[in-house]
Write a structure and sequence with these properties.
This protein is an alpha/beta fold. It contains 13 helices and eleven strands.
Length: 342
C-alpha cells in the first residue's frame, strides 16, 4: 500500500463507483436507449461524464496529460471532494493559513472535519515555525495554501510551499484561482514531483466564466482517479463544457481582457493611494486590492448605499476592504465615491 492509499478514507478505497452505459460506450453516434432520456430535443442527452474534449484542451495549454486533470462544478467541488476522499468525519483535520478563503472552513464544517488555523505573519506569508508541529500530525489530512491568497492578494513564497510539500503527512492543495493575474508560474509543474500535491484552478476569474462553474484540479493520476470515483456521474453540464471550450479557444480575447484588468489595477492602486480615508493599499498579485481604511464598516455601508458593492474584510484583517478591479467606469465611480468621504 503506497502513501496516498494510507491517507485515503478506507470506505473510499473500497467504494464501487457508479457506472453508466456511457462509461462503456464513448462514441457520440449511436442509438442510445440506455439512460432513460427523452429521445427528442437539443439538450436531451446527458453530458460527457469525463469532459474529454475540455480536458484535452486544458492538457495542451498546461502541458500535462489528460489523466492528470479533474474538471469540477467550480473549485468548490474540488475542495469538497478532497474532504470526502481524505478526511474521516469527526477524526481527521484540515489546516489553513489565515486570513484566507472562507470556503475551506465552511467545507470542513459541512464534512465534520476539525479546522486548524495557522496565522500568516505580518507580511501575510506562511510562518513555518508555527506550521511545523502540525506537519507530523497524521490526522492533518489536508493543507490548503491559497496563492495568490484571498483576501490579501499576495503570492506565497515557494520556499515555504516546497518545505510543506516535502514534510507534510497529508495532501497539500494549492489554490491558484488568481494565478493568471500574477507573474509567477503555476505549481502544476510540480505534480509529478510531489505525489501529495493537488493544484486547484478555476475559469471563474481570469477567464470570466464565474457563471459557468468550471473548476479544475491537477494532480497525479492516482489522485485524479479518486476524484473521478467519488464525483457525481454528470457533474459538469454540456452547456458549461461547451462554453468553457469556446472561451479557451478565444485566447486573444482572454489576453486582451487580462491586460485591461492589470492596467486598471495599477490605475486604481495609484488613485486609492491619494485618498484621505485610505491608509494603506496592500501589494496584489490578483485581480483585487486589499485596502486599509479609517472605518471599514462605515465606509462599506456608505458605498453600499451608493450601490457600489465591495467586500468588508474587517473580521479577517482589521479595518480592511477588498475591492475587485472593475471596468474603467466602475473604478472611476468607486474613486469618486471614496473621495467624497470625510
Amino acid at each position: 500500500m503506497n502513501n496516498i492509499e494510507k491517507i485515503v478514507r478506507r470506505n473510499i478505497l473500497e467504494l464501487q463507483p457508479y457506472s453508466s452505459a456511457r462509461d462503456e460506450f464513448s462514441d457520440r453516434n449511436g442509438i442510445f436507449l440506455d439512460a432513460n432520456e427523452n429521445p427528442f430535443g437539443e439538450l436531451n442527452r446527458y453530458p460527457d461524464p469525463y469532459q474529454k474534449e475540455l480536458k484535452q484542451k486544458l492538457a495542451e495549454m498546461r502541458g500535462v496529460d489528460t489523466k492528470n486533470i479533474f474538471v469540477g462544478n467550480g473549485s468548490d467541488e474540488v475542495i469538497d471532494l478532497a474532504f470526502r476522499i481524505f478526511c474521516n468525519p469527526g477524526i481527521d483535520k484540515a489546516l489553513t493559513f489565515t486570513p484566507t478563503y472562507g470556503i475551506y472552513e465552511v467545507s470542513a464544517a459541512i464534512n465534520n472535519v476539525e479546522i486548524v488555523n495557522v496565522p500568516l505573519n505580518k507580511a501575510f506569508q506562511i510562518d513555518l515555525e508555527k506550521t511545523k508541529p502540525y506537519l507530523n500530525d497524521k490526522r492533518v489530512k489536508l493543507i490548503f495554501i491559497c496563492s495568490p491568497n484571498n483576501p490579501t492578494g499576495n503570492l506565497m513564497n515557494k520556499k515555504e510551499i516546497e518545505f510543506i510539500l516535502n514534510n507534510a503527512n497529508g495532501i497539500v492543495i494549492i489554490d491558484e484561482a488568481y494565478i493568471d493575474f500574477s507573474n509567477e508560474t503555476s505549481t502544476i509543474a510540480l505534480i509529478n514531483q510531489y505525489k501529495n500535491l493537488i493544484v486547484s484552478q478555476t475559469m471563474s476569474k481570469a477567464w470570466g466564466l464565474a457563471a459557468a462553474r468550471i473548476g479544475i484540479a491537477y494532480a497525479n493520476e492516482q489522485i485524479i482517479s479518486l476524484y473521478n470515483k467519488v464525483k457525481s456521474p454528470y457533474n459538469v453540464s454540456e452547456l458549461n463544457q461547451k462554453q468553457a471550450l469556446k472561451t479557451l479557444n478565444n485566447y486573444d480575447l482572454y489576453s486582451s481582457n487580462l491586460r485591461t484588468i492589470l492596467d486598471e489595477k495599477e490605475q486604481l492602486k495609484m488613485a486609492l493611494q491619494q485618498i484621505n480615508v485610505v491608509k494603506k493599499v496592500y501589494p496584489s498579485d490578483a485581480n483585487f486590492l486589499l485596502i486599509e481604511v479609517d472605518n471599514s464598516n462605515e465606509i462599506y455601508s456608505t458605498l453600499v448605499n451608493q450601490k457600489i458593492i465591495t467586500r468588508n474584510r474587517n473580521k479577517q484583517v482589521p479595518n480592511c476592504i477588498r475591492i475587485s478591479v472593475g471596468t474603467p467606469d466602475e473604478n472611476r465611480a468607486l474613486i469618486t465615491a471614496l473621495k467624497e468621504l470625510r
